[in-house]
Amino acid sequence: MGLRVPGAMRVRVAVVFFLCCPLAWCASLPAGAQNPSVAEQYLFSAANQERVQLGLQPLRWDPGLYRAANAHALQMAEQGRISHQFAGEPDLTQRGDEAGLRFSEIAENVAEAPTAIMIQQEWLNSPKHRRNMLDPAVDSVGIRVVRGRGGELFAVEDFDRSVRNLSLKQQEEQVGRLLESNSSIQVVPTTQEARRTCMMDSGYAGPRQPMFVMRYTAVTLDRLPGELEQRLATGRYRQAEVGACPAESSQGFSMYSIVVLLYR
How far is the C-alpha of 124 from the C-alpha of 32, rounded, in Å? Predict the structure, then answer.
């Protein structure tokens, strides 16, 4: 039976060591939990071996991604063919959402072959699949391998960049650190008025009038919006206050909702 590997899937708003796994990148594979098969352990460790050799961070095994991969692998084995979505089946982002994932990026590799070693080699030989596996932006993976009726293996490798569940205070502190690192502005403690302002479509809450109000949503809090950076670069503002409020997620793509108030 020949190996068949279709184009890899990406969406953006992510060894074998049959007897032992002594290297550092294998330590993140949980013992027990889903009891990964030998084939799944192989593909997990092989992917991380490739990443570590290129100086990339190893992937974390994610139980939610495993659940998403499992649902799709079972579908492929039942259908007897590979695809990223079958008729009536949720797409990749919906599968991630149903598995309880929060992510800013999600990607998928699928394959059919007699052995896991052949699957890994062909994924590495395919530019799209290799790019998914070695993407420095993803940090988590879940892999499911199911044997079909004819004995062939159907494999699903789901990757994502996980979004941490940050409290409102943690969000405010993280944005505050960005403000201080990008300017000489003083970040004052967050008030309830700032959080109420975050929930407003316009205007501000409380008696103190800001000179500028910046509302934005983001999937990560690792950088400030360009417009806000330009405002800070003028040097016109002396103080800033950050407010965070609950934001909605859509099909797993998690968002943070932030307001920054600038004062002279």
Answer: 28
Question: From its phi and psi, is residue 6 left (phi > 0), alpha (psi between -120 and 50) or beta?
Answer: beta
Nearest to 71 by CA among 50, 58, 85, 52: 85
pLDDT, tens digit only, all 264 positions of the chain: 334 544 465 443 322 222 234 333 344 454 434 678 999 999 999 999 999 999 999 999 999 999 999 999 999 999 999 999 999 999 998 888 888 787 878 999 999 999 999 999 999 999 999 999 999 989 999 999 999 999 999 999 999 988 777 889 999 999 999 999 988 999 999 999 999 999 999 999 999 999 999 999 987 888 999 999 999 999 999 999 999 998 865 555 567 899 999 999
